[in-house]
Write a structure and sequence with these properties.
With 328 residues, the chain is of the alpha+beta class. The chain is 26% helix and 24% strand. It binds zinc ion.
């Protein structure tokens, strides 16, 4: 995650260029861009505040450079800044954007440009929301919305080492990150979360392709591969950080989650106590927690706790795995 010091460093020293570069003359750009697009992206223009509907758009998807189609921002990082320009907290990749010092108009600002084609996008400021604290203030004209099948799911079901190991094996799952969510402090450490005082749950954030696996299926797998009926406890792990929790990102997801809970309830003797909460922020856990099972298969916890859970999961959902077992 980039912070203000990274931005200053990149503005001073440059940041690595992406493999793909797009270079055209002004004459060539003019031929493919609308006059307003050309004025803003190639001549460092600024659109009027509140001139675009894009400010109010928070649907899932990505935002690409209007000039060269390179994806620059994810809707996950878009926020309501109240400025009248689309605002983001982070670029999609560390080197998607390049940063230049801009002393125009008697101000000292950091200009943001597309690192692939040098299109002027807007500026970046250090008054954005935590945890990164950045506000990318971008001209809507410089961007185009790209709808993708990529979505994120954030869930907790006890120790994240277990949850991560399970979701990593599913077809359609692109990435699983272990971290913390649902608490009341920014950037908690593992030690703070373990204290139970921050209110965070150990969670995994699953990036998935909804054309391969649905939100509904992922939730069903989640609820049937941990015990959602024990309040603030998962096996021997006790404390609010081990609570069963589903974060929803919009009302559709909330309704689907309620439906799935209702559907799987009959398979448990006890009442499901999974918390439902609107997603706000995900904080990635320390590096040694990532890929924990893959990196530590012989540790006692992995052998005693994760192996049996994985075995049960693989049996139940063998058709959903990345590599389905060969039928004999
Ligand atoms: Zn570009």
């Amino acid at each position: 995650m980039l912070n203000w010091l990274d931005v200053l460093k990149f503005a001073n020293n440059g940041n690595p260029k992406p493999d793909r570069r797009v270079e055209k003359t002004d004459y060539e750009w003019q031929a493919i861009l609308a006059p307003e697009e050309f004025r803003i992206t190639r001549q460092k223009g600024t659109e009027r505040a509140h001139s675009s509907e894009m400010c109010n758009l928070f649907e899932p998807g990505r935002y690409a450079c209007i000039c060269c189609d390179t994806e620059l921002f994810d809707s996950e990082e878009k926020f309501e800044s109240g400025t009248g320009w689309p605002s983001f907290t982070q670029p999609i990749q560390e080197n998607a954007i390049a940063y230049h010092k801009d002393k125009g108009f008697g101000m000292y600002r950091i200009e943001t440009v597309c690192n692939t084609c040098d299109a002027h996008l807007g500026h970046v400021f250090q008054d954005g929301p935590p945890p990164g604290g950045l506000r990318f203030c971008i001209n809507a004209v410089a961007l185009k919305k790209v709808d993708t099948n990529i979505r994120k799911l954030t869930i907790g079901g006890g120790c994240f080492w277990c949850t991560e190991a399970i979701f990593q094996e599913l077809a359609g799952v692109i990435k699983v990150e272990s971290g913390y969510s649902g608490g009341n402090t920014q950037n908690p450490t593992y030690r703070e979360v373990t204290s139970g005082h921050t209110g965070h749950a150990e969670v995994v954030q699953v990036t998935y392709d909804k054309s391969v696996i649905s939100y509904e299926t992922l939730l069903k797998i989640h609820l049937t591969t941990h015990n959602p009926t024990t309040l603030n406890r998962q096996g021997a792990d006790q404390g609010t950080q081990y609570r069963s929790i589903i974060f929803y990102r919009n009302d559709d997801e909330r309704k689907i989650a309620l439906k799935v809970i209702e559907e799987v309830q009959p398979s448990f003797d006890d009442m499901i106590v999974t918390e439902m909460k609107k997603f706000e922020a995900f904080c990635e856990a320390e590096l040694y927690h990532q890929d924990y099972y893959k990196n530590n298969p012989n540790k006692a916890y992995c052998q005693a706790v994760i192996n049996p859970k994985l075995a049960k999961f693989r049996k139940l959902y063998h058709k959903k795995l990345k590599q389905a077992p060969v039928q004999t």
